[in-house]
Amino acid sequence: MITWEILIATLCDRAELLGTLLAALLPQVNAARGAVRVTAYRNQGERPLADIRQALVESADARYVSFIDDDDMVPDDFVSTILPLLDGVDTVGWRMQYYVDGTPHKPTFHSLRYGGWWEDETGWYRDVSHLNPVRLALARRCDFRVELPEDWGWVQQMQKLVKTEHYTGDDKIMYHYRHSTSGGSKWVPGSVSQSPGRYPPRPPVSSPNLAYHPRSTC
C-alpha cells in the first residue's frame, strides 16, 4: 500500500485549471518514487460533489488521503514537506491562505489545537478539513453524503475521530485556497454544458502516478 493518495474532484470544463495544478503537483509526486499517487474524478456535474468525494475515498488504496480542489494550488515542497510527517498520526495540520478573486485575505490555520472552526479579526482557525491528510481508516468512517455542504458535514464526523497530528508551522503556507466570485469555482450538480464527447480533453500531462477514477465521464 502506498503512503498517500491525493484526490481531486474536477469538472471537465476546468481542464486548464486542472492542468495548471497537475503541472505543479506531479513533479513532486513523481519524486516521491511511488509513495504518493494522484487520483482525479473528472465529470461535468452529472453527480453531486458529495457523491464524487465519497467515491474517491472509497476507491482509495493508501494509508492517508487528502483532497485538493482543481482551482487551488500548493507550494513546490508540498509533497516533500508532508510525506515524512505521515508516520502514523491521524492528520497533518498547516497554515492555509485564502484568496477571493486573487486578493489574499486573513490567514487560515488548521490544527487540532483549535478545537473546532472559528475566527477572529486576525485569522480563521480550523481543527481539520478534507484538505488535510488524514488516515484512510478514519476517512472511511465518515460520509460526505450525510449533510450539506458536504465538506462541513464530513468535518463534523471527522472531528470526533482525529486525536493526533503533526503541524507544519505558522510561518509557511502549505495550501492556496482560491475562490472566484464569478462562479467558476462553484460546483453545480447537473450542470452538463456540452454534448457527451465534446468536453475539453484531459490536460496534456501524464505520469505513472496519476490515474482517473473509472467512473469519470470525460
How would you characterize this protein structure?
Helix content is 21%, strand content 28%. With 218 residues, the protein is an alpha/beta fold. It has a single domain, classed as Spore Coat Polysaccharide Biosynthesis Protein SpsA, Chain A (Alpha-Beta Complex), CATH 3.90.550.10. It is globular and about 45 Å long. The mean pLDDT is 92.
How are the elements arranged and paired?
Blueprint (H helix, E strand, L loop, with lengths): L1 E10 L3 H17 L4 E8 L5 H11 L2 E6 L10 H5 L8 E10 L2 E2 L3 E3 L7 E3 L2 E4 L7 E2 H4 L10 H9 L6 E3 L5 E7 L30 E3 L6
Parallel strand pairs: 1-2, 1-3, 2-12, 4-10, 4-11, 6-8
Antiparallel strand pairs: 3-9, 4-5, 4-6, 7-8
Main traits of this protein?
21% helix; 5-stranded mixed beta sheet; 5 helices; globular; Spore Coat Polysaccharide Biosynthesis Protein SpsA, Chain A; alpha/beta
Rg for CA atoms? 16 Å
| Second CATH tier, the architecture | Alpha-Beta Complex
Summed up, the domain count is 1
Distance between the termini: 28 Å
- Give the helix proportion (percent range): 10-25%
CATH superfamily: Spore Coat Polysaccharide Biosynthesis Protein SpsA, Chain A
